[in-house]
Amino acid sequence: MNNAKAQILALREQLERYNEQYYIADAPTVPDSEYDRLMRELIALEQANPELLDASSPSQKVGGAPVSAFPEVRHALPMLSLDNVFSEEELAAFEKRLMSRLGRTTAVEFCCEPKLDGLAVSLLYEEGELVQAATRGDGSTGEGITENVRTIKAIPLKLKGDDWPPRLEVRGEVFMPSAGFAAMNEAARAKGDKVFANPRNAAAGSLRQLDSRITAKRPLSFYCYGVGLVEGAPLADSHFDTLQRLKGWGLPVSPEVKRMQGREGCERYHQDILRRRDQLAYEIDGVVYKVDELALQEQLGFVARAPRWATAHKFPAQEELTELLNVEFQV
Ligand code: NAD
User: Fold this and answer.
1) pTM
2) Residues with CB under 6 A from ligand 1
3) ipTM score above 0.90
4) CA of 81 to the centre of ligand 1 (A)
5) What number of helices (H) and strands (E) belong to the chain?
6) DSSP for 131-199, written as a single string
7) Residue of 5, 61, 96, 115 marked catalytic
8) What residues form DSSP beta bridges with 134?
9) Is it the case that residue 322 has pLDDT exceeding 50?
10) Does residue 1 carry a pLDDT above 60?
11) N or C: which end of the chain has fewer CB within 10 A?
């Protein structure tokens, strides 16, 4: 018991340190696969020793505290994280849990999306105009980055049409396309400046700048993947149709977003995107499956840090991926 407690405390401390480097300083010191491995170890230990569970554990929290240099923005609805699965077996278990909670025997439909590797943002539109943008921060409070977001060309300052709700919060990912990332690092190297470790950190570092003129020079882009607060009637009955409405107002939605039936459909989607991963213009670290029907999402609800109705299916880290593909080609 004492041993488990000591292990849990050590893992929490280590993960807190990594969180700070990743979320606050935009400068991780370990690969995501290592972070994910330690997090799973912590979750397994906490599940085996429920009396040691603690709401302040990194396993129960979202992101990192907002930095005080930016104005604080309270999210009307929390911005959560995603649970994840790493294998077909874990995906099957995810579907089984869903079906049993919903008391269903027939497969549900999922909205399948690429898991963009950038930074989550919340965009508030009032009467069709962008009035506020914020980071996720710790999930309840984010950093106000409105001026920086205004410099991103993919994000409309004014929505098209006139049938949008008076207040609409759009959520999505700001990311740096691979070509822009390579060119930016190349230019930095030529000048002897610091280079970014990967496009995710480059996007986060570029967006969380105190001077929006610096952000404006960075090749940032954006796809939306959901909504937060919507004043008035819901936009649609399903997540997929919600995204289509956003698209109609000029908000970019990834062309890779597709509706698929049950776990088999998700698995096919995963294989297809994994195969084409290197041809995409941006980095992704997996795909996301979301129960498509909003009434079912509501029935399923949330746990501490993530919705029960969605999961990320993470791709193997690149070095692990090479091994996996080699094995696949041999059979
Ligand atoms: P996450 O990456 O596990 O999942 C949630 C995030 O996915 C959302 O906030 C959103 O930004 C993003 N996302 C991308 N596409 C999406 C889509 N289509 N729909 C919904 N969300 C989408 O996020 P997290 O909670 O920020 O971070 C945990 C992960 O971050 C870890 O698993 C690890 O890989 C990495 N991390 C690494 C370190 C490190 O030191 N290397 C430290 C902390 C976190």
Assistant:
1) 0.92
2) 18-19, 21-22, 28, 30, 32, 35-36, 62-63, 81-82, 84, 113, 115-116, 120, 136, 173, 225, 288, 312
3) yes
4) 7
5) 11, 11
6) EEEEE-TTSSEEEB-HHHHTT-TTS-SB-SSS-S-SEEEEEEEEE--HHHHHHHHHHHHHHT----SSH
7) 115
8) 122, 144
9) no
10) no
11) C
